[in-house]
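[SOLVED] Need 3D model of a two-part complex

Original post:
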Amino acid sequence: MDFHEQHRDVMTNNRPSDATLPHLVVIGNGMAGCRAVEELLARDAARYRITIFGAEPHVNYNRIMLSPVLAGEKCFDEIVINDRSWYADNGIELIVADPIETIDRAAKKVRSRSGRTVRYDRLLIATGSDPFIIPVPGRDLQGVVGFRDMHDVDRMLAAAEQGGDAVVIGGGLLGLEAAHGLTLRGMRVTVLHIMPTLMERQLDEAAGWLLKSALEARGQTILTGADTAEIIGDGKVEGVRLKDGREIPASLVVMATGIRPSVALARDCGLDVGRGIKVDDQMVTSDPAVLGVGECVEHEGQVYGLVAPLWEMCRALADGLIGRPSGYRGSIPSTRLKVAGLDVFSAGDFSGGDGTEDIVLRDASRGIYKRLVLKEDRIVGAVLYGDTADGSWYFDLMRKGEDVAALRDMLIFGHTYASGGGRADPKAAVAALSDDAEICGCNGVSKGEVVAAITNGACGLDAVRATCKASASCGSCTGLVETLLALTLGDEVESGPKTMCKCTSFTHDDVRREIVSQGLHAIPEVMQKLHWSTPDGCAACRPALNYYLLCALPGEYEDDQQSRFVNERLHANIQKDGTYSVVPRMWGGLTNPRELRAIADVVEKYNAPMVKVTGGQRLDIFGIRKEDLPAVWADLNAAGMVSGHAYGKALRTVKTCVGSEWCRFGTQDSTGLGVKLEKMSWGSWMPHKFKIAVSGCPRNCAEATIKDFGVICVESGYELHIGGNGGIKVRVTDLLCKVATEQEALDHCGAFIQLYREEARYLERTAPWVERVGLDYVKRRIVDDEAGREALTLRFLHAQSFSQEDPWAARAAGADRQLHHPMAQLQPMPAVAAE
Amino acid sequence: MTADWIDIGRIDEIPMRGARTVLVTGGDEVAVFRTADGEVFALANRCPHKGGPLSQGIVHGHRVACPLHNWQIALATGEAQGGDKGCTPTIPVRLSGNRVLLCRASALKAAA
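Solution:
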C-alpha cells in the first residue's frame, strides 16, 4: 500500500457527516459523564459529535465498585461500565490521562494538560468530586492515600501486601468500605471517626451503634470521637496521633473524610459557583453553552454525593440536550448498602424535630432495628438495620408523599402485614411497588426496567444483570430482583432454560442458533456479537463455544487450544499427581502381538507404574510425564496404533463381544461391525463422551444397553439402542429401531451421532438429552424421516473427513512442542538454561 | 553476583490465555501465565486445593481454572476465588520489551 492509499483510508474513517454536527465536549470520563452520554445516545445518537476527556488512564468504570476490588471480590475488568468498543461503536473520541486545564468560554475552547485545544458547541462539566484531605501535619507522608480512584486502590493493595496496621480516618460509607477491604486483605485496621457514631449522615445513633458493634465483632477497632492531630512518621507513615494524645501505629493511612465538589475549572472560567457549580433544572450552568452534572453541581442549594441522584440528573440533562426539557426536581437521597455483609438502609430526613413522630422496632437478639419518621401522616425518613427488605416500599411511599394514616398500626412490620393478614404473600411488597420504584440504586434501574428485561427474555438473575445491569454491582438488591423474576415468570423461573454461564444472558440453544444464523466464525466474534459480559469468557463457556463452532464449521473453524480442557489439549488424561495416562486405540477391542509388544515396551521404557485393562476393552498406561508424551506416542504410532481419545468429549470406545465368528450363540459378526463403527466414528468431537457397544446376541455380553449407541445382533438383523448410561445415574437404552443390514446400522449410527452433535448442549450426555427431547423426537428425525437421516449421515461423514487425523502423530512429529516442555530451567546458582 | 531478575524467554513463547512452566532445580515448578490483555503473572505450579498443575488450566480474565477440580485461582494474588479458601504463592514477574523476567529469589523461595 503506498502513502496516498493510506492517507485516503484515514480520511474515509473519519465519517464526513460528523464534522457538520455540533460538538459536545465532556470533561470527565466517570459515572456521571458517561451516563449522561448514554442517556443522550439512547434518545438521539446522531445529534452531536462527542469527545470525552478523562483525567484517569482508564475507560469508564463503576466507582462504587472500587470497594469490592479492594476487598478482592472483583477485578478491574469486572467493574468497567463501557469498554473501548463502546466509545468506538458510538463514534465517541475518548482522550484519557489528559485532564482539561482551562476553559475559554468566549472562544468556546478547552485546553488539556498536554496542550490539546478543542472547540466545543456545548460543554458538559462532569468532574465529580475530590477527596477532602484534612489539613493535619504529615498528610503528605508516603503511605497516606485517599479512596477515590483506581490509583488509590492500587496503592492500598500494594500496602496491604506488606501486611501490618492500617488506620482509616473517617467512619462514613467510604471509610468503612476501605476498612472492610483492608481487613479482608489481612491488615489490622483501626477506624478513626470524629463524630460520636458511625455514618451519622445516613444512620441515626441506634443504627450507628449496632453497626459499630458488628464491625468490632469482625475484628476492626473503631474509635469514635477520635480527632486526628497529626500523622507521624519520618518520610513515610508510622502512625497517627490523636488530639487526646493516643497514638495508633500504622504503615498505611486512608483518608476517607468526605468529598468536595470539584469546581476549580468552573470557578476559574467565571461560572457561578456556590458549594458546587450552580445549575438549573435542565442542568445548564450560568453559561447557556455549558452544562454540569453529577457530584460537581449544586441544584437548588443541594449537592449530592450519592449515585442515585446522578441518574435522575442525567435523564433531565439528556432531555434538555435534545430539546425536550423535562427538568430535574432534586432528589430524596436513599442509601442501601452492605458493609461487611451487614444490610443497612436509610432515606430522607431522620433528624426528628418539630412535628415529627417516630415508629421504632427493635429486635436486639436478631440485630434488627427499624425506625420510621413521620410528619403529618407521611413518611419523611427511614432507617433500617439488619432487615432492609421493606426499604424500597418505604422509600416509594416517601417519594410519592402518600398518606399512611390507615397503615400506621402495621407500618413498621413491613408491607406484608400492613397490606393485611399476617400470612400474606411475602412477594406482595415487591408486587406492590410502582413501575418507577428504584430497584438497583447502583445502576439506577427501576422496577419497570427490570420487568421489561425479564419479559424480553432475561429469565435468570445473571441474564437480568447482563441486560439491564440491575443487581450487577453491589448486589444488595439481588433479593428484590429474584422476587421480580418469580413474580414475572411464575414457575418458569426455576424450570426455565438456564443461561450458558455467568458471562452471557443467552442459553446454550440461543448461542448455537445465533452462531449459525449470524454466520459467526470465532470465539471472540461470538462474544462480541452476543454481548459477553467478560473479556474472554470463563472455563465453562470457552470449551462450549469452541465445540459449537467446530461442529458448525467443519474443516473451516480453527480449533482454539486455549479453550480446551487440559486432557483435550494434551491428548491424554491428567491424573491426580499431574502425570498422564495414555490409551491407544484398539479397534473394536481387538489387538495383536505387535501392539501388545509395543505397549509392553513403552511401559518399561518410560517406567509406567501401572497398566490397567479398562471397561471399554482397552489398555491404559499410567504415570507418563507430560514431557514424555510425544515420545510415547511415537513408539505407539510405530506399531500402528493411534490415539484412543480416552481423554475427549468424543467417541471413546466401541466394545464388542466375539460374535458369530467364534461364539456358539452369536448371530452376526459383532466384532466386525464394531470395528467398522469405530473406524467410521473415531476422532469426532461431540458434546460429551460417547460410547458404543455391539453384542452378538441378546445375551448382550458387550453390555450394549448401557451405551450411548448400542447394537444387539439378532438372527434377522440388528436392534439399534440409544441413550444408555452406566455412570452415576444408570439408564438403560431405548430401542430406536431394528434394521436388516450392517450398512443400515452404520448409517443410523452416523445420523444419530450427528443429531446429537448438532442439537445436544455441551456436556450433555445422550441419556439426559434423549430424556429432554424425547425418544419420539429422535425416532421422527432418524427413523421416520429417511431423507433427513441421509442428510445427517452425510453431514457426519463430511465432518469426519476433517477429524480423522491422529493427533498423536502430529505431536510425535514435533507439533506444539511448547505444550510439553518447560520454558526455562532455574537453578539456585549461576544462570538460566533456556530451553 | 546473581541478578535479581532472570530472563526466562520471550512473551510470545507463552500462548495467549495460556501458561508455560519454569523448572526449578531442587524445587517445584513455576507456572508463568500470559493473559488476553497481554499481562504476565507467575504462580507456583500447584493448586492450593490438591496440588493440581495450574499451568494446564484454562486462563480467563485474570484467573485460571485448575485442571483437576476447577478451582478458580486469581493470577494476581494466587488466592482461590468464590467459596474456596486457599492461596498459591505468587512470584514477581515483569515484562521488559518482549522479554519475560522472573524474580529469582522468589522463584527459588516459593519452590523450596
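Edit: Strands of chain B lie at 5-10, 18-24, 30-34, 40-44, 58-60, 63-65, 72-74, 93-96, 99-103.
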